[in-house]
Amino acid sequence: MKTTLLAFSRALFSLIFFHSAITQLLNWPDTIAHLQQTCYEWQIYFETNFYIDSIIQYCIAHASFVMGVATFLELVGGCLIFTSYQVRLGAMFLILLLIPKTVILHPFWLKVEDSLSIQIDSFLKNLSIIGALFYFFIEPRKKKIELNDKR
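^ thats the sequence. predicted structure below, dont judge the formating
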């Protein structure tokens, strides 16, 4: 029972990453346009900082590559957690993806009233997912799973 419940919980947890990656792939031009628009918005705040502005310019110019890497990390990380194979690696991929994605795509501190609530909700949702991913990364996996778990 415990093994089945753990497998089911991993499947549910991975679902959000599969959905996000598939949606990005199916709407690729819109996904790229959204990333570029977000980078333009960030550029307004950091145009005087040469280093950050250079990173933003790179993301705008190479948006397809950046989104390709992000989508790859999302799919592979989700698959690794779903299959329970290399869970720590999958969690690391998703942590590396979600930390910058959360800060860049959900900057509630820069938003006006009409989108503020949505951005705060998305930011907090991603923080809770990052917390769960740290648990997957830190929690040691048991070497042996009992098939006849009576708990």
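The CA atoms of residues 38 and 104 lie 8 Å apart.
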